[in-house]
Amino acid sequence: MDYQNNNMNTNNRNGFDDWNNQMNQYGMWQPPEKQKSKMGLGILIGIVSTVFVLGIVAGLCCVLTNTQIVFADRGAGDNLFAQGKTAVLDEAAVEKINELSAYAKLYYYDEMELEDIQDGMYKGLVEGLGDKYSVYYNAEDFAELQVSTTGQYYGIGAGLSQDPNTMIVTITKVYKGTPSETAGLKKDDIILYVDGVDGASMEVSELVKLIRGEKGTIVQLDIYRPSTDEYLSFDVERADITLPSVEYEMLENHIGYIWIDSFETDTAHQFETAVEELTKQGMEAMIIDVRYNPGGMVSAVVQIADEILPEGTIFYMEDKVGNRETYSSKGDTYLDMPIALLINEDSASASEILAGAIKDHDYGTLIGTTTFGKGIVQTIFPLSDGDAIKLTTAKYFTPSGNYIHKVGIEPDIELEYEYLNPDGETYEKQYDNQIVKAVEVLTEQLGAE
Questions:
Q1: Active-site residue, selected from the candidate residues 49, 329, 349, 351
Q2: Does the residue 70 lie in any domain?
């Protein structure tokens, strides 16, 4: 490593004074003023997986679920700037920050971006908790998080992926009923240009920002279509998009199949619609597929579990001081039919809430492999400047009291995934051995009734 030796000869008084004056100029030796805390711990209630805290009014933190709003005084926590063992920013810490900043200002070879440095400090504070699920988000990151969790944004309704080596961006999915489908875009189309900007010139997350925009405006996409060896151009009108998180179809023997991609704002409504449509088609048994489902919003999984289960506990959570909050199915509606739930090692969080409730109530057959094992609770707190912090705030337990964190939920029928038609170029459900097994189990149960 190349570096410059900055050891000083303290006998050279003029040199020392010059250096000392520079340090004072950048605030290195300035004692910090004591400040009142602007941050509180708050009271947490009713949140599992990821639930948004959607408001800050007059210094209050609003914790929002679909059924209750609880306000907590943001000033209720310890003063983080105070002296003592629990202080984060005591005088020594502030002085050290000033010292590090002074060295960076004096010797860092390039321009410093103050906002990036401050973001790095905030991220470092949260990372210091040693919990990979606790995260600091700046305003831009928080906006992207809300899109991924709610599934709602202004755009064209297409899924994208990027090759990490070539940076080529490919359309992986065209969602039904969206501007992408209307315009004629197809899966596997390669995006060459977005409004004249090279699609391979930036990270896909940045390219997405160019594609999204105000409702009713037009984005021009130039693409290459490998299937027909064509170069095409599309003018796509941006619209209010709610990505579908549920897909469904009727399989053989009057067995309905519902796939849940993630638990988002509109997922419960989409699930109810799927059940209604399959019931009209004569559904007598149901497969619910949460393989590769990473979780999502607690309100969504609670609504879906309430739709499926008779009266009883869905799960409960406990915070750091032992306060318990229980979520239950009311029992006014439930599915009176054989159910199979497909799970795997990537079924996590809210998916495991559903799996644990079905298993503990013996209300269905779990088929596949042991789930991921995420039995802790995250809460997102928006900050007054548009940034946000996500913190792990509690543990959750299945109705029987099982704490599944880093353990997961075992299936009733252990079955590793195998595609039964290895020569097929496209995925078809009839060759998915776990779906085949679920159909077999449900058919037997229907015959036994």
A1: 349
A2: no
Q: Rounded to two decimals, what is the model's pTM?
A: 0.71
Residues 253 and 199 in one domain: no
d(CA 329, CA 332): 8
- φ, ψ at 351 (rounded to 5°): -60, -35
**Residue 327: inside a domain, yes or no?**
yes
Q: What percent of the chain has pLDDT over 70?
A: 79
- Residue 280, token pair as written in the block: 């009209």
Choose one of 242, 273, 306: the last residue of a domain: 242
Highest mean pLDDT among 128-132, 232-236, 382-386: 232-236
Both 250 and 287 in one domain: the answer is yes
360 catalytic residue (yes or no): yes
* Least reliable range by pLDDT among 66-70, 200-204, 376-380, 384-388: 66-70
- Among candidate residues 90, 261, 289, 360, the one labeled active-site is 360
For 269, other C-beta atoms within 10 Å of its C-beta total 13
Q: Tell me the C-alpha distance between 258 and 279, whole Å.
A: 12
Q: What DSSP letter does each residue of 2-45 carry, written as one string?
A: --------TT-HHHHHHHHHHHHHTTTTPPPPP-----------
pLDDT of res. 162:
85
Asked whether residue 280 falls in the same domain as residue 301, the answer is: yes
Which among 242, 269, 285 is the end of a domain?
242
Which position among 134, 329, 359, 374 bears the catalytic label? 374
- Average pLDDT of the residues of the chain: 81
Q: Which domain covers residue 417, as residue numbers?
A: 246-376+395-448
349 plus 427 within the same structural domain: yes
Range 79-93 average pLDDT: 66
DSSP codes, 147-203: HHHH-EEEE--EEEEE-TTT--EEEEEE-TTSHHHHHT--TT-EEEEETTEETTSS-
Look up 349 and say whether it is catalytic: yes
pLDDT band at 204 (very low <50, low <70, confident <90, very high): confident
Residue 127 within any structural domain of the chain? no
User: Beta 388-397 vs 312-319: how paired, if at all?
Assistant: antiparallel
Angstrom distances, CA of residue 270 to CA of 147, 267, 289, 309 = 17, 5, 14, 17
Domain count, the chain: 2
The CATH number for 180's domain is 2.30.42.10
Question: Does some domain include residue 351?
Answer: yes
Q: What is the pLDDT of residue 279?
A: 98
